[in-house]
Amino acid sequence: MKFLEDHLPKIMLAPSFVAVLVFVYGFIAWTAWVSLTKSRLLPKYEIEGFLQYDRLFASLRWDTAFSNLFLFGALFIGISMVLGLVLAIFLDQNIRTEGAIRTIYLYPMALSMIVTGTAWKWILNPGLGLEAMVRGWGFENFTFDWLVNPDMAIYTVVIAAIWQSSGFVMALFLAGLRSVDGEIIKAAQIDGIPSWRIYSAIIIPAMAPIFLSAFIVLAHLAIKSFDLVIALTGGGPGFATDLPATYMFAMAFSRGDIGQAASSAMVMMMVVFAIVVPYLYSELRAKNG
Amino acid sequence: MNKISTTVSAVALMISGAAFAEPQAEVLHWWTSGGEAKSVAVLQQEFADNGGTWTDMPVAGGGGDAAMQALRARVLAGNAPTAVQLKGPAIQEWYEEGVLADISAVAEAQGWADVLPESIAGHMKCEGSWCAAPVNVHRVDWIWANADVLESNGIAMPTSWDEFNAAAKKLQAAGIIPLAHGGQAWQDATVFEAVALGILGADGYRKAFVDLDQETLTSPAMVAVFDQMRMMRGFVDPNFPGRDWNLATAMVMNGEAAFQIMGDWAKGEFLAAGKAPGDDFLCASTPGEGFLYNVDSFAMFSVDGDDKQAGQALLAELIVGKNFQKVFNLNKGSIPARTDVSLDEFDSCATLSSDEMAASNEGGSLLPSYAHGMALRGAQSGAITDVVTQHFNSDMSSEDAVAALWASVANSL
């Protein structure tokens, strides 16, 4: 009994610990191994060095996919946060219909990315959606053909992703705004400080942890984005809207080039690490200090 | 149903009097849409009539990508299906993994070598022994046209790319979209290979897309191919990216567009809409000599057990059998792979396809389609398609495209 009492927590945790060890870290190690081989259709295990990485960085398509990731990620995270914050501040003005409006803004989050992508594909299609509608109103020269323009198509992915996620960011920020100590705000108001100064100097700095959480959530959404691109553009026109995840899928499952897919997966993981490790480090340091 | 098939097989056993086990086959395929599912059901019925037990394993999605994932998992688990819908060099790729069976006994007993065109038979052999059974022949280098649109604009079916360009400009001036096209990578590649066959000729096409010959891939003729692709880009409506092929076919059907370059599965769309070949729509090979084929086939995987091996042999025999070849291809819009099937019930486009297949087989211009995974392995054909679609969807120059083409192919090897 004594043994059980002492070790019960460990026994309870052991299965999930083992599962994570095998299914997360074990498979990461497996992918790393395969990325160093010449695997094509089926995995092979003779190590050949960094050949797949050389191929990866020589590939025109990966170039597009990788730079799209940063373009998409920066715009998606930046605009979602700004938009979410502005919406949250507006909602925070004690307006009467707050509940209803909050639900409306949060609703897109309830849709799957496939639905969002398909809906926006129709809205943005020049022959069916927005452009056709505005032209139908008589503005014959109105053009909004981003979806079919290879230089602009990646921005349509940004638009759809922001539409989906900014409501969620708003909810996060709204919770943050509500958690700021009301006494301080009242004191500032008594001192006659204008409300934009109250927000910029008091409330927003007090919400720093919320910004960090929102950033981490949005960053991982951006890096693993796959379904939205597939539904909205299918990676096209050409491969103008490819992202690393769609590149990896194409290599692994359509082209029978598993080594290449594994190397692209490893690069994606390193990008995630580059974002998450500093976050974990700062979290741990804050706890220990 | 089960009871019936058991009875049938019991009867079959009694008749044959042989002591071997009941034939069993587990078949992995992705023919799940209307006409295709009906075609597979024909095979299933025949298999049951011959005393076999068929375990159906349809995996839909992604043009076979999902099925390939399922196959990979099964092979890695050491439990491969009896027969798998595979085609082209993918058969050889799996053979190199050492998982395919040898069905030469059936093939020789049935005399496959005499009834299949040589280059198609080549795909079904692994280092000399037969390892797969062909189902059909789709021709890829077709050009489809709306008969009324051509007539009212005084245009004949083009027989050279210059004629095509002239016709397209005339149509454009008349306010008709010359070429119905869907901007998906594989459709770009389909148009590209038809253009390449026309401009490079059969030998040039073989060197470029079967042998991956550097000289041909970087030749001035290849620049001309990309130049023509740039022309084609001008004949497409601005709203083409992402469009599905059948929507492009519909544009030809309702007279919005004049031509479409697409394999003969497009014929199925015309026929399903009640259009008649020759009257409502026209079919012809794209300008230039040659015939690009896309042959569906079943690869046979090594399986243990007499019942499974008997099933495999029976399946192979039935697939290449005259009855299945006829019924299946009537449903699917393609033509039989074996050349001795009567084409009485087929339409005029299928007869044309069959005649030209025979002629090009003799002339040495019966060639595998690269865009549909018949000529090259996935990595190499994908590398070519990347450049083709990049060029088609941007303002890349033809010279840059040719340079990128070789770089991309070399990187994929």
Keywords:
heterodimer, A: 289 residues, mainly alpha, 13 helices, 74% helix, 0% strand, flat, B: 413 residues, alpha/beta, five-stranded mixed β-sheet, four-stranded mixed β-sheet, 19 helices, 15 strands, 53% helix, 14% strand
Task: Draw up the topology in text.
The complex is a heterodimer of chains A (289) and B (413).
Chain A: H1 2-34, H2 51-58, H3 60-91, H4 98-106, H5 113-124, H6 130-136, H7 153-179, H8 182-190, H9 195-206, H10 208-223, H11 227-232, H12 244-254, H13 258-288
Chain B: H1 2-16, E1 24-29, H2 34-49, E2 53-58, H3 65-76, E3 83-86, H4 89-96, H5 104-110, H6 112-115, H7 118-123, E4 125-126, E5 129-130, E6 132-134, E7 136-139, E8 142-146, H8 147-152, H9 161-173, E9 177-179, H10 185-209, H11 214-217, H12 220-234, H13 245-253, E10 257-261, H14 265-272, E11 281-285, E12 291-294, E13 297-300, H15 306-320, H16 322-332, E14 335-336, H17 348-363, E15 366-368, H18 378-392, H19 398-412
Parallel strand pairs in B: 1-2, 1-3, 9-10, 12-15
Antiparallel strand pairs in B: 3-13, 4-5, 6-13, 7-12, 7-14, 8-10, 8-11
Structure notes:
The complex is a heterodimer of chains A (289) and B (413). Chain A has 289 residues and is an all-alpha fold. Helix content of chain A is 74%, strand content 0%. Chain A has 13 helices and no strands. The model of chain A has no long low-confidence stretch (mean pLDDT 88). Chain B is an alpha/beta fold and 413 residues long. In chain B, helix 12 crosses helix 19 (398-412) and helix 18 packs antiparallel against helix 19. Chain B is globular and about 70 Å long. The A-B interface holds A 40-42, 55, 58-61, 121, 125-127, 145, 147-148, 150, 153, 233-240, 250, 253-257, 260 and B 62, 65, 68-69, 72, 75-76, 90, 93-94, 97, 183-185, 188, 238-242, 377-379, 382, 386-387, 389-390, 392-394, 404, 407-408, 411-412.
